[in-house]
Structures are given as structure tokens and as C-alpha cells.
């Protein structure tokens, strides 16, 4: 939080192409208060545990990590609440004036065409609103489009006043001069009131950052009043802190005996890893140094490619942490919209670093010291790259058949192939590594492409990477176990060991653990999905049957995206959407799923067992 404070000064510069010259008082104070709360919390815990002695064992280590993650999530949410950050507008409208709009999530009476033209203009403008001249221009254009030939021509001020007097709309619409303390860039604008983030919103955003999920409840990232730059930097910093894995960092801090081994096993699944606690601490320090070094290299590359320092740091944090928090509503696609040449190079560079972030950091260390052959020899990395290449080929081919990547019918085949390869490869890598960056609206792809991306959410990165998800090694071992069990069904007397890379696996419990893990993933996914489709109001999807029909698929992808720490899904939480419109209890459910996905299922679920907390 301390490193986020300087970004409240406009002299540092902020997002690319932005000229915001106002000190962020509320954001700065929100961070200061959050830092004080963190210090108080540390003092309380230090006083409680100052006389503690002895080593940490497996049970204590799991309890410390799980509870510490909860505390970190709550403290990480404080800057959003104490700075008064907003996550969306109070009004939500849909495709037609015939569909009832929502105010603070509740449906209200449908609007007339004139009212819809007015509200549509204000919603499209965001929290900043529109000056009287701009609003009049947009209002007149929409009236002519939706109600041509209307005579006499309606006055937008009369429509605004009439709507403001209706009970549900009172206090929602703001006219120029109504709030003299408003920022100078909007005090003379017509606008819609923003909705401050509540506790559920802030905890969701905090957990999404620490768990490197990248899901967000913030609808407009580009408004420095709704979300100050210093708070936006803190948001990206939570990715940096969670990127390498709080568990591995705890090995450095708490790496004592069996505790260190337990924590390392939870973060790096697969065959058991034995070693002294000093060696594990050395490994964790090596991972941390490599992780910071890659962040520094990527920051410099993005800076050279046209990003300013603020954007470069934030996107480096989101890439190496496989988190996906961006500083723009269009995610990384923003830079391609501004400059297609530098934007394309930025995407290719980020693809490379996402692949690296999804790889085992032990292999990256060998690559760094000149032993690149270790990558090719590693069966999990070959499996990982095989999935990326194979799925990309399928997505690109089907995308070109269905014209998913072009908007101009005159585009040449070569240009279309370039667009398809870049966008297809980027989204495949972004999903499998659980990064969640977006450069193209994959929610508009053909059914095969969207279905493949949905399945990729359950794959994840390699063991020992910053990626979330099930992990590639588990999928590889799972299919090996299935083949062994199939062979055993017709050759029951044959005893064949489970092999990994040609070597037998010594851990006798590994097969059982893998099968139990997949079973728990399935159970959590099914029950989470049923809970949402049963209890989440249909109003979340809008008021038309067309929207509500998507509820089953959208809910499934939302659970998959949060449980596997991916971030974006399909439909209502697609590449261009967010989680802001879900009810508060659903956001807390997603928060729990993100924590389970990041900390590994066993490490979290055991905390819910009463016997876990009893004395030995």
C-alpha cells in the first residue's frame, strides 16, 4: 500500500494518453487509513503470538496460511471502501426502451422513447456525464433515430426534469451545479450517480487480486474519480503479491520442518517433493528472485513498446502473476485500438511472458542458467505446449471458417490469417494460463471456439507456476491413471506402476489423491453452479427471455472462471463484461471459490472441519 501512495500525485503521469491533473485526496487518504489498520492488525497478532515457541507442523501451517489469506483479503479490501471508489452506475439499461431499466439492481417502470434516449446517452458517457451541449447533440440524434419525425422536437432538459421527479429516479440523476463539490471535469455536466463499492464488492476485488483471478466488479477502470490511480495501482499490486503464491512465500517466512514441506506440496501438486527446510527456503527465494526479475524485464519491454511507466508496471504485474488486471476497460486490446503496430507487438510480448508465467519456475531457472534442454525433457511442459499449439490450431481454423476475427468482408486471406493467429493464440494462452487478459471479444466466437475456451478453464498452468486451475500435471497423471484402470479391468492380475516421464512414481497415495481432487473439483463446480442458477435473480441477466436463457451457461462459466482463477467467462461475465451486477451473496460465493482455487482445495476445506481445530 505504501508504494501505491505516490501515484496520487499527477506529476508521476498515469495511463497512456491521459492528462489528469488533480491530486487524488480520497484515494490517498483511503490508502493511509488502510495502512494504519494493517499496522494495528499486525500489532494485535504480534502481541497474541509473541510468546509462541516451537516448530510449525502441517496442521498449524495450513491454519496459518488459510487464516492469513482471509485477513489479507479483508485488509486488501479497505482501500476500495475507505477511498469511496465506485464500481458501476446506479442505472442499468438494456437494448430497447420496452425493457424495464434497473436502478441499484431493482427493475423499475419502462421508459418512453425520449426518456430512453436521454438515459442511454448518460449511461454511455459513464460517471463523468455530458456537458449540456454534448447531451443535446446525442439526445437529438437518438430521438431522430428511434422516433423519426417527432414534432415538436423534445427538449432534453424537460425530459430530464420529468424523469428526475419520479420516485425511483430521485437522487439518481444529477444536473449541472447540483453538487458544487464535484470534481471540476464534471460539476457542470448532466450525469448519473455512481454506486460506491460495498463490503462484498471490495472483498471480491481484493480476493480476485491476491488469488490472481483477475475477475472484477468495476465497470469503468478509466475514470480516475470513480477509481483513483493510486487505488488502481494497489489493485494491480495485489496481483504481484499473490503472483508467486502466498503459500510459497510462507515457505520463506515460516519454512520450519514439516510446515515448509506441507506448504510447498499444496502449491506444487504432483509427485511428492522431499527436502530439508533450508533447501525449500532456498528454492522459494530463487522463485521470488526469478519472479521479480521477469517483472522488471517485462516492464521495460512494455515501456519501450509505447506504454508509460504506470501502464507498463501494472500490466507486468498482471502478466507474470497470471492475473489479468488491466488499467483499461478494453484490457490489452486498448493498445491495439490506439496503435495497431505497437499494440500487436505488445500482445506478442505478453503472449511469451504468459507462457513463461504458466511454466514451472524450476524449469525457468534451468533455462536462465543455460540448461534449456530441461524444458524439452520435462513431460509436463511438453504436454502444456502441446495443448497450447493444438487448441490454437483448432481455434484459428474454425474461427476463419466462421469469420470470427474480421469485421471487413474485403479483408484479404493473409490479413485474416494474421488476425486469427494473433487473437486466437493470445486468448488460448490467456485462458490456459488463467491470466484472463483480453484482446478480442471471444464471446462472439463460434460455439466450438467458446466451448474449447470453457474447457481450457479447467486445465491451468504447470505445477510450480503462478497459474491457477487444476494444473497440467494433474491432467497428465489423470489420463495415465485412467488407462491403468482400464487395463486392470481386463487384466486384473497385471501390476503396472504409474510412470511419469518413464520413471515410476513412488508415492503410493498419489493415484487416490488425484482422483479425489478431480472429484472435489466436480462437486464444487456442480453445487456452485446449482446455487447460482437457483438463487441468483433473473434480473441479473436483464428482463428479456433472450438474456435469461443464457443463465445456465453464464452461471457455469462464472463458477469455472472463479474456481480456476481465470477471471472472464462467457455471456454476462464475458471479455467485455464484469461481475458488478451479481448479488452480494453471489460475489461472496465467488470469493470463496477463488480462494479455494488458489490455495488448493484440501488446504481450504480442512479449515471447515471441526476435528481440524481440536487438540491432538
UniProtKB/TrEMBL annotation:
**Protein keywords:** Cell membrane, Ion transport, Membrane, Transmembrane, Transmembrane helix, Transport
Topology in the lipid bilayer = Multi-pass membrane protein
Asked if Coiled coil is a keyword of the record, the answer is no
Molecular function GO labels: monoatomic cation transmembrane transporter activity
Localization annotation: Cell membrane
Q: Which GO terms describe its biological process?
A: metal ion transport
Query: Where does it mainly reside?
Result: membrane
InterPro entries in UniProt: Cat_transpt
Q: What cellular component terms from Gene Ontology apply here?
A: plasma membrane
- Stretches of the chain forming a coiled coil according to its record: none
Sequence intervals crossing the membrane:
26-49, 61-82, 240-263, 284-305, 345-369, 381-402, 452-473, 514-535, 588-608
Q: Does the keyword section mention Transmembrane helix?
A: yes
**Family under the similarity heading:** Belongs to the TrkH potassium transport family.
Query: What is the name of the protein in this document?
Result: Potassium transporter
Amino acid at each position: 500500500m505504501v508504494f501505491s501512495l505516490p501515484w496520487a500525485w499527477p506529476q508521476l503521469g498515469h495511463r497512456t494518453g491521459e492528462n489528469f491533473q488533480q491530486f487524488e485526496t480520497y484515494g490517498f487518504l483511503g490508502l493511509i487509513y488502510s495502512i494504519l489498520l494493517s499496522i494495528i492488525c499486525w500489532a494485535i497478532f504480534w502481541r497474541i503470538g509473541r510468546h509462541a515457541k516451537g516448530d510449525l507442523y502441517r496442521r498449524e501451517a495450513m491454519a496459518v496460511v488459510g487464516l492469513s489469506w482471509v485477513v489479507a483479503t479483508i485488509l486488501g479490501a479497505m482501500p476500495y471502501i475507505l477511498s469511496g471508489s465506485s464500481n458501476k452506475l446506479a442505472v442499468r439499461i438494456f437494448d430497447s426502451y420496452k425493457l424495464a431499466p434497473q436502478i441499484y439492481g431493482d427493475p423499475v417502470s419502462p421508459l418512453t422513447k425520449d426518456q430512453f434516449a436521454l438515459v442511454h446517452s448518460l449511461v454511455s458517457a459513464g460517471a463523468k456525464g455530458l456537458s449540456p451541449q454534448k447531451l443535446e447533440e446525442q439526445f437529438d440524434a437518438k430521438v431522430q433515430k428511434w422516433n423519426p419525425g417527432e414534432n415538436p422536437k423534445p427538449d432534453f432538459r424537460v425530459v430530464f426534469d420529468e424523469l428526475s421527479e419520479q420516485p425511483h429516479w430521485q437522487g439518481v440523476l444529477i444536473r449541472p451545479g447540483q453538487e458544487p463539490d464535484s470534481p471540476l471535469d464534471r460539476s457542470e455536466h448532466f450525469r448519473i450517480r455512481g454506486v460506491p463499492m460495498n463490503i462484498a464488492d471490495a472483498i471480491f476485488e481484493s480476493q480476485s487480486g491476491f488469488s490472481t483471478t483477475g475477475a472484477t466488479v468495476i465497470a469503468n477502470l478509466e475514470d480516475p474519480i470513480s477509481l483513483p490511480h493510486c487505488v488502481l495501482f494497489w489493485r494491480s499490486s495485489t496481483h504481484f503479491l499473490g503472483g508467486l503464491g502466498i503459500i510459497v512465500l510462507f515457505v520463506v517466512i515460516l519454512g520450519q520442518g514439516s510446515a515448509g514441506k506441507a506448504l510447498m506440496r499444496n502449491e506444487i501438486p504432483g509427485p511428492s517433493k522431499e527436502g530439508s527446510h533450508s533447501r525449500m527456503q532456498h528454492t522459494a527465494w530463487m522463485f521470488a528472485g526469478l519472479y521479480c526479475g521477469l517483472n522488471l524485464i517485462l516492464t521495460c519491454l512494455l515501456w519501450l513498446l509505447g506504454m508509460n511507466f504506470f501502464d507498463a508496471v501494472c500490466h507486468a504485474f498482471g502478466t507474470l502473476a497470471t492475473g489479468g488486471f488491466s488499467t483499461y476497460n478494453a484490457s490489452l486490446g486498448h493498445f491495439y485500438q490506439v496503435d495497431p503496430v505497437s499494440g500487436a507487438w505488445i500482445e506478442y510480448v505478453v503472449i511469451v511472458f504468459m507462457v513463461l508465467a504458466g511454466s514451472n519456475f524450476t524449469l525457468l531457472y534451468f533455462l536462465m542458467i543455460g540448461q534449456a534442454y530441461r524444458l524439452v525433457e520435462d513431460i509436463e511442459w511438453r504436454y502444456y505446449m502441446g495443448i497450447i499449439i493444438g487448441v490454437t490450431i483448432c481455434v484459428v481454423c474454425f474461427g476463419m471458417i466462421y469469420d470470427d476475427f474480421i469485421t471487413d468482408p474485403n479483408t484479404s486471406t493473409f490479413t485474416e490469417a494474421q488476425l486469427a493467429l494473433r487473437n486466437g493464440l493470445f486468448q488460448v494462452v490467456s485462458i490456459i494460463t488463467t491470466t484472463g487478459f483480453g484482446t478480442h471479444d471471444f464471446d462472439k466466437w463460434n460455439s466450438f471456439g467458446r466451448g474449447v475456451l470453457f474447457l481450457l478453464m479447467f486445465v491451468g498452468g504447470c505445477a510450480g507456476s503462478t497459474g491457477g486451475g487444476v494444473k497440467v500435471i494433474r491432467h497428465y497423471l489423470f489420463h495415465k491413471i485412467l488407462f491403468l484402470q482400464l487395463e486392470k479391468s481386463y487384466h486384473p492380475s497385471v501390476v503396472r506402476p504409474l510412470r511419469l516421464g518413464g520413471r515410476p512414481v513412488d508415492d503410493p497415495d498419489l493415484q487416490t489423491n488425484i482422483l479425489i481432487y478431480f472429484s472435489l473439483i466436480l462437486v464444487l463446480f456442480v453445487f456452485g453452479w446449482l446455487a447460482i442458477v437457483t438463487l441468483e435473480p433473473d434480473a441479473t441477466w436483464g428482463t428479456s427471455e433472450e438474456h435469461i436463457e443464457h443463465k445456465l451457461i453464464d452461471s457455469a462459466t462464472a463458477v469455472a472462471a472463479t474456481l480456476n482463477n481465470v477471471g472472464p467467462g462467457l455471456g454476462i461475465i464475458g471479455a467485455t463484461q464484469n461481475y458488478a451486477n451479481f448479488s452480494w451473496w453471489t460475489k461472496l460465493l465467488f470469493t470463496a471459490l477463488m480462494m479455494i482455487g488458489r490455495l488448493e482445495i484440501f488446504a481450504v476445506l480442512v479449515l471447515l472441519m471441526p476435528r481440524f481445530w481440536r487438540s491432538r
